[in-house]
Design brief:
binds zinc ion; HIT family, subunit A; about 140 residues; 2 helices; globular; alpha+beta; 5-stranded antiparallel beta sheet
Amino acid sequence: MSECYYCGDEYKKYMKPIAELSVSYAYMAGYQKYYPGRCIVCLKRHAEEWFELTDEELCGFSRDIATVARAIEAAFPCDKLNYGICGDGNRHLHMHIVPKLKDGYTWGKLFEMLPPVEDQILIPDAQLDAMIERIRAHL
Ligand SMILES: [Zn+2]
């Protein structure tokens, strides 16, 4: 069993695959209450810092992120997409893409990486699958 959240199976408890892209995978986050349409773009191979990527990976990862961001905006209209990479807990390079609404949850602030504990409820599979199909229709 891998210790890495994304190289192992741990992530599968909290998100579902949307698509395989050029150098990464797109996943739909399981916590959707505050930011419907939130996705993660995760590099296929294990790398932790941008400077570890080859030129091809740098270009491909940026392209993959833009592709998913465009699809999110089309499927889940929003006022602004937010992008976030931390890696403190899960070091494997991945980008959170978070659609936000004016006057919505955390508008004008950094998005919350995790919802409040009482709202850490995974949405039902059928609902998540429907959201995934909305994204896929725009990829
Ligand atoms: Zn990894």
